[in-house]
Amino acid sequence: MKKTIFIISLISIAFYSCDKVDDPTPDNFVGTEGIIWDDSLFIESSPTMRKIIIEEFTGQLCTFCPVGAREIERLDSIYTDQFIPISVHAGAFADPNNGAPNDFRTEAGTAYNNTFGASGYPAGTVSRINNAAVTGNSQWEVDIQSIENDVPKVSIGLSTLYDDSTRTLKTIVSTEWLSSEVGTYNLQLYLVEDSIVAYQLDNGNPIQNYVHRHMLRKAINSTWGTPIPSSNLGDIDTQDFAIEVDNEFDKNHCIVVAHIYKVSPDYEILQAEELHIVDTH
Length: 281
Fold this sequence. Notes:
CATH superfamily: Immunoglobulins
Strand content: 35-45%
Number of helices: 5
Number of domains: 1
């Protein structure tokens, strides 16, 4: 059933009771005036659960990276709703000039790989703790356990709206601070696609129909996100962005991931949320 923007606006206003705060417009912003949305979804993060993101750096030519991917699936089965995995194709093992059949790199993913100094793949960061330390897969669960019981410092309300005729995705994110925090914070939005079937080296074996999970496709609001104006207890901010979803992306497997992180040199992700762009039930 088609739904209008008015419906989702009522949800956002009812939850936060605030005016919209202007935010920078990304380069790939598209207009949404007059669109009647095919799908509209909403989720609110729990005030008692800190969700945890792992950004795994990988590539099709990384022969040991499937070991890391399998560890992520194991962790996902344990931490379930608290766990948000993202697979970032970056570095030499993802470079098609080195023989990779597909180019799954993104401008944002390359920036994260270089900034955080990923090497010795499989490698990843757990909510970018310890100054975005990149570690091997044997360390990931240790890092998760060190923060899994943390009380959240900020909450996220995430809405997605999607129009299939124009392949327009609009994302609305409202944040509310649950404590007063010192520092500068950004909102970051990713478009992630799951279950992409493509080539992968796996322990020396070329797998033609490997299923790539949780792949970063693009940063919706630029590589490093957009500023949150303030971070005092009770402060509220709302931002929205609209992009055109590439034709090659499967809308049924696309997910928006929103997170709040402390700006350099810390980078720690304080809270996160994820939501499909269409109703898959």
